């Protein structure tokens, strides 16, 4: 078993307790999608492509009062060490659902009745926290597609490793740690749109974990904002 943390709180990948992995986001990387983004979040490598608003197929799924949002999170066969079956697993179906529910409050769907906005997420390489990284890329891809939004959605996990609360759990910490709590936030509105918890936390630990994750989400937001600025205002300034 790997040593997850040293006595003085240095984690297995050299980070401090409250340190995020390196994040880089590129906007508009796909020519054929209406909007797209590529994120590297530590060793996670994820592409998000958005189509829409466009006609709904099958037609009976259309809502006359509002647009609909569909999300597909998919892991490529080479995204993990053992070849992953390309067919959607229960885990991918669950993650697709929670990503959709995390993005939906931010997207102004009322403006586009009878249409669909499709978000396709391809995980090229996974290393723990891929649902949060996928959400971060998807929110930026929606903005890149020009979809009206109330806010961006910024996501980051916190967790418990070696009895300490840590920010941004990596794969090793996820597998061998005590808790993993992915959180998504609309950072300007201040609303949480995703909260999951795998593991057990005492009430006090939960509070600290939540605060830690929210700080992480706000830091992720700055990276998302900068990436969008870089595409739309070349010098990165407003
Ligand atoms: P998240 O990626 O959002 O943290 P999980 O907690 O379910 O989601 O997964 C944690 C990590 O486990 C993933 O990021 C990935 O590195 C690894 N993993 C997920 N599915 C598989 C799989 N089928 N085979 C090997 N590793 C996997």
Question: Could you characterize the architecture of this molecule?
Answer:
- The chain contains 4 helices and 10 strands, in the order ββββαβαββαβββα.
- With 238 residues, the chain is α+β, with helices and mostly antiparallel strands.
- Strands 1-2-3-5-4 form a 5-stranded mixed sheet.
- Strand 2 and strand 3 form a beta hairpin.
- Helix 1 packs across helix 2.
- It is globular.
- Bound molecules: adenosine-5'-diphosphate.
Structural key phrases:
5-stranded antiparallel β-sheet; binds adenosine-5'-diphosphate; alpha+beta; 29% strand; 238 residues; 5-stranded mixed β-sheet
Shape: globular
Name the poorly predicted regions: none
Rg result: 18 Å
* Order of adjacent strands in the largest pleated sheet: 1-2-3-5-4
User: Helix count?
Assistant: 4
Task: Tell me the structural class.
Answer: alpha+beta
- Ligands bound to this protein structure: adenosine-5'-diphosphate
Output the helix-strand order.
EEEEHEHEEHEEEH
Let me know the average pLDDT: 96
Roughly how many Å apart are the termini? 48 Å
What would you call the quaternary organization?
single chain
Helix content percent band: 25-40%
Could you give a short account of the major beta sheet?
5 strands, mixed
